[in-house]
Specification:
The protein is an all-alpha fold. The protein is 67% helix and 0% strand. It is a multi-pass membrane protein.
């Protein structure tokens, strides 16, 4: 699937993913169906079955693989909105669902618009790593258990709102970095310099050497603040800090190899943006 972007007309994946994301988000209309007489679970089951049948009817591989992922993320987003406005102790989990689904969908959409040559199904980052999946599952389990035994812990609205601000800041910074870098941005650290690879030092890259990592760092921690998850909050902070420390050093080794003194001068002027992470050490 890595070559799906090269075989399709420019922009077609972006339009397809947006249309199917919005189709999935139409679950927001489900309360209208329940008011019309359908039971909640019956209506949801019929809705999901109808969505999948429609996608199978409209699309064939590889477009179906794109459509079903975007539709799923739209569905999660719509469910998150509904949950956010519910009168239950799960409403902040709805904020989290919206944040998570928008992050993964926008990773694909921005790549499709900004750097279609590197576009693949992996651009959704849904299969980022086993560690990422375990971390997500752990946060859901913690929220569920604490919500059962200490529901008041999940209703600290000012804390969840603070986490949501962190999420919004991180998401905006990361997407700004992706747009600024253009075709230079890639989800995989590049070990070989391409002909079009240039050193980007303008825009948000004039603030931080690694703005996309800074954005993801605060986004990931912010999701746990939204959930008021004390255990995963601390664990996420330590884990993502260590991950980005190693990732930054790995990337900077390549950048020094690509751009030499030009990158070393940039490295002197601009910080990484990540707390207590200075990047790879250079022996003079």
């Amino acid at each position: 699937m890595a070559g799906c972007a090269a075989r399709a007309p420019p922009g077609s994946e972006a339009r397809l993913s947006l249309a199917t994301f919005l189709l999935g988000a139409s679950v927001l209309a489900l309360p209208l169906l329940t008011r019309a007489g359908l039971q909640g679970r019956t209506g949801l089951a019929l809705y999901v079955a109808g969505l999948n049948a429609l996608l199978l009817l409209l699309y064939r591989p590889p477009r179906y693989q794109i459509a079903v992922r975007a539709c799923f993320l739209g569905f999660v987003f719509g469910c998150g909105v509904l949950l956010s406005f519910s009168q239950s102790s799960w409403n902040h989990f709805g904020w989290y669902m919206c944040s998570l689904s928008l992050f993964h969908y926008s990773e694909y959409l921005v790549t499709a618009v900004n750097n279609p040559k590197s576009l693949s199904l992996d651009s959704f980052l849904l299969n980022h790593s086993v560690e990422y999946t375990v971390a997500a599952l752990s946060s859901w389990i913690e929220f569920t258990l604490e919500n059962i035994f200490w529901p008041e812990l999940k209703q600290i609205t000012w804390l969840s709102a603070t986490g949501l601000l962190m999420v919004v800041f991180g998401e905006c910074l990361r997407k700004a970095a992706m747009f600024t870098a253009g075709s230079n941005f890639n989800h995989v650290v590049q070990n070989e310099k391409s002909d079009t690879h240039t050193l980007v030092t303008s825009g948000v890259y004039a603030w931080f050497r690694h703005p996309s990592y800074v954005g993801w760092f605060y986004w990931s921690i912010g999701t746990q603040v939204v959930l008021c998850n004390p255990i995963c909050g601390v664990s996420y902070a330590l884990t993502v800090w260590r991950f980005f420390r190693d990732r930054t050093e790995e990337e900077e080794i390549s950048l020094i190899h690509f751009f030499g003194d030009e990158y070393l001068e940039y490295k002197k002027r601009v910080p990484t943006g990540l707390p207590f992470i200075k990047g790879v050490k250079v022996e003079l």
